[in-house]
Amino acid sequence: MRYNPFAMARKKAPEDLSVEELRRLLVEKRRGARKERLEHYRRTGRVVALAPDLPDLKEESAPVVDTPEETASQPPVAVTKRRRVMDRVLLAVEVLAVVGLIGVIINGLGLLRDLNREVAQALNPATATPTPLVMAVVLPSGHKPPDAQGNTAPNEEEIPEHLRPMVQSLANVPIPTAAPDQAIRIQIPTIKVDAPVVQGDGWEQLKKGVAQHIGSSNPGQDGNIVLSAHNDVYGELFRYLDKLAPGDQVILYTQQRQYTYIVDRTALVEPTAVEVMASTGGPTVTLISCYPYLVDKQRIVVFARLQN
Q: Is the pTM for the entire model greater than 0.70?
């Protein structure tokens, strides 16, 4: 039979027990009372068994187990749920942070691409684009009648006063780079015209030859080629436009070939009749000059169509 010192201690009278035996009896009594309370709580549903009971105390120095009230006040299930919720919240925060970082990177790449494009455009400026016809406020070649010495100047009085700032802003429109399909020469056999064609119909360009309005079509292409020249100064190239009749030829040359246009009709218009410069559905040419000779109050306009 195994010796049980607790049983032997119970048989002794209290005054015969040593201090060590009294202490052991007290610990055993407290443990028994604790077990009874725990069983009562389990039966009444106040405590749920989550782990097996601890083994009996084997040694005198065994730690004291918390009371059921303390155990019930900290339910592991609630702690687990809170932890899961916190884990999900932290995961959502991490996902949002990653998405935000990706957005910042994509936005930065877009800004970098735009900056590179702007720098490239600044370092390599594109060829000047033609000025649209709708910006014209007065027909080209207008000038004051020459004096006795042949001196003349642009006639700003024929420009409506409220449109003069616009005309001044268009005075320095850049001339586009020459291309093989642009007109370089014009011949009108009926009135003995054989002259170079220059791009731009500003005051300085009209001194050099027949001027092509920037933005108008090129020879052979659908649209309207607008050409102008003076009638009483700088060579008087278009002095005899009024002599042209339907069926006369207007020949335009490019670096590659020539194109023949047939005169269709002639009209006298006011300097502000810019609608004659509008684009057309088929290949046409419009010749413009001041009229009448040495008066220059109106414009004479000759319309021609490409010969089939």
A: no
